[in-house]
Write a structure and sequence with these properties.
The complex is a heterodimer of chains A (115) and B (154). Chain A is mainly alpha-helical. Chain A has five helices and two strands; from the N terminus they run ααααββα. Chain A is elongated. The chains are: A mainly alpha (115), B alpha+beta (154).
């Protein structure tokens, strides 16, 4: 997948009012955990071992999909869910950028109070 | 996945000094490099202009949450999608917000300051990608700023 096609896809913005609390939910975090091996899984596999119904799991997966964290992949006639590793990477890069900014600000604070 | 930031920094200054540097808007402005319009008041929004060279078009905005003297100072602020002048917008009404918390603890040498920023899960993926694309040049400049600053000090 080229960067170009990906960025075009991502310009489809979600409604600003819908803020993604995608990972701020235990079920969704667990789903991401199950997918973190990198192996795509069917909804049935993701539902197994959970107390939630298939419908409830599907709903959580849609939230994750809107947040760009997972995507549906075709496996023959069946669709499977896979983690979008790029989304995870992007989140990490974003946090790294914010983190560097804080390092700099805190270094200035340190110099300021220790002066 | 860890979607919060936590930093701990030991400061050789008493908590009272650190508290003032954090919560007096003029002192905060000195090290954060922002010209704030007025004092921090719990429940109110504080605004100002960023003073970083090249980033003067960016509006700083913080909603003060808690001010527990010499212990905790917290605010929420909007995430900025585009930092570059051409695309920056000061309309933060639809911007995802994160929570910034400064916690102070007295130590033998002075103060242990813990900074956390949380709530990044509310930043949509499309946004994060755009913010990063817009940032590349900016960060190189920022790194230079800090280098210059450190050089001047030493």
């Amino acid at each position: 997948m080229s960067t170009r096609s990906r960025s075009r896809k991502r310009t489809v913005r979600p409604q600003p009012a819908i803020l993604f609390a995608a990972l701020g939910d235990a079920t969704r975090l667990a789903l991401v955990g199950k997918l973190s091996s990198g192996q795509p899984a069917s909804i049935a596999q993701l539902t197994a071992g959970s107390r939630l119904t298939r419908q409830a799991i599907s709903k959580h997966l849609r939230v994750l999909e809107r947040a760009g964290l997972v995507r549906s992949v075709r496996a023959g006639r069946e669709s499977r869910i896979a983690l979008d590793p790029h989304a995870i990477e992007e989140m990490q890069e974003y946090l790294d950028a914010v983190s560097r900014r804080w390092d700099q600000a805190l270094a200035r604070l340190k110099a300021f109070v220790e002066d | 996945m860890e979607n919060r930031i936590e930093k701990r920094i030991a400061l050789n200054a008493p908590v009272a000094r650190v508290w003032r540097a954090l919560t007096d808007y003029r002192e905060f402005g000195e090290w954060f490099r922002v010209a704030l319009e007025g004092p921090f008041v719990v429940g109110q929004v504080s605004r100002g202009r960023i003073l970083h060279p090249g980033y003067e078009h960016i509006v700083f905005e913080a909603m003060i949450q808690e001010m527990e003297p010499e212990r905790l100072f917290s605010f929420t602020w909007p995430q900025i999608q585009y930092h570059d002048k051409e695309r920056f917008s000061a309309d933060y009404s639809h911007s995802p917000r994160t929570l910034v918390e400064f916690r102070l603890e007295p130590t033998a040498a002075g103060t242990m300051l813990t900074l956390t920023e949380s709530g990044f899960e509310s930043v949509p993926a499309a946004w994060r990608a755009d913010a990063l694309r817009g940032n590349d040049g900016g960060w190189t400049q920022q790194m230079k700023n800090i280098e210059n600053y450190v050089d001047e000090k030493s």
